[in-house]
Specification:
two-stranded antiparallel ribbon; disordered C terminus; disordered N terminus; alpha/beta
Length: 314
């Protein structure tokens, strides 16, 4: 029998078929390390899409030079926002036959078994999104899980700040390290690395581009939960995440707060939303009085909402 007559090899259906979407914006300093970490994944990696939001550095060149990966680049030509770039990246993928898509920040590095472990999570019925344990570059835990936003939790965080996350379920942020040692469901999680089943994607539709940056992952997770999909945290899957500038950039900090209130407004009636807004404003005002620049920027944004498009374009 000649080679041409050999029967086709059967595809191993147990190996997850995954695509990855990475959103870049002047990400040259971190993108190469991210792509290097994808060379060995333990899954059938079909496509790695880099969706670029008009980078002015070498981000696209780095992506196009990663010839050892099934690379595809999508150029938006402008800073259209995180959600818009995710949607553009997903649109460029042939989803037929895929099990899941990993939405990934360029400042993340994955261990070789991370995607496989997250894929295993999605085999369970109605688990639609799987998220890993995030670590800082120094190996310490990066708190990434959140509870449902409420007026009570906003008040706790306004008065106690980050300490609220350490006291029972007072705060929205889950800060207790013991919680991160065990797998389980979460309301929402930091969107640095999210493996989403294609069934979930088909069910809930595209990411909401109106948020541009921040709260888009919250909205997506809450919308998935509305339709019965669970977001599951898997601590055995580990991702090193450098982290963004929202804790140091006044403009980005303001955008975080404005979008947080905007999302709450969409999901609650006016009296509850008004209370939430006033509590958040109170908390940021308290911190502004101590001289914190990012809190002052947040107060200004709450009183006079900034142009989110202008912030992103800067």
């Amino acid at each position: 029998m000649t080679d041409n007559c050999r029967p086709a090899r059967e595809v191993d259906a147990t190996i997850p078929r995954v695509a990855i979407v990475i959103v870049t914006y002047n990400s040259a300093a971190v993108l190469d390390n991210c792509l290097r970490s994808l060379r060995s994944t333990g899954v059938d990696l079909k496509t790695v899409v880099v969706a670029d939001n008009g980078s002015r550095d070498d981000s696209l060149m780095i992506a196009k030079s990663a010839i050892d990966l099934p690379m595809l680049t999508v150029e938006l030509g402008r800073n259209a926002g995180y959600a818009a770039a995710i949607n553009a990246g997903i649109e460029a993928i042939d989803l037929a036959g895929l099990d899941a898509v990993l939405v990934l920040n360029p400042d993340c590095m994955l261990r070789s078994d991370t995607i496989a472990l997250l894929s295993r999570v999605l085999r369970e019925p109605r688990r639609g999104i799987a998220v890993p344990r995030l670590l800082n570059p120094d190996g310490t835990l990066q708190t990434s899980l959140r509870r449902t936003p409420t007026v009570r939790r906003a008040m706790a965080e306004a008065v106690l700040g980050a300490r609220a996350g350490h006291i029972g379920s007072l705060g929205e942020l889950i800060a207790d390290p013991a919680h991160y040692a065990k797998p389980g469901p979460a309301v929402w999680a930091t969107g640095a690395a999210m493996l989403i089943s294609t069934k979930t994607m088909a069910s809930i539709g595209p990411w909401d581009e109106s948020f541009l940056l921040y709260s888009e992952e919250t909205e997506y997770a809450l919308r998935a939960a509305d339709q019965g999909w669970t977001l599951w945290y898997e601590p055995a899957a580990v991702v090193e995440h450098v982290g963004g500038e929202s804790g140091t950039s006044p403009k980005l900090a303001a955008l975080v707060i404005v979008n947080k209130v905007a999302l709450f407004r969409r999901r609650h009636r006016f009296p509850t939303t008004a209370a939430f807004y006033l509590v958040v404003l109170f908390g940021e005002s308290l911190r502004a009085l101590t001289g914190r620049r990012i809190a002052r920027a947040a107060v200004v944004a709450l009183l006079r909402p900034v142009s989110r498009t202008r912030v992103l374009a800067d």
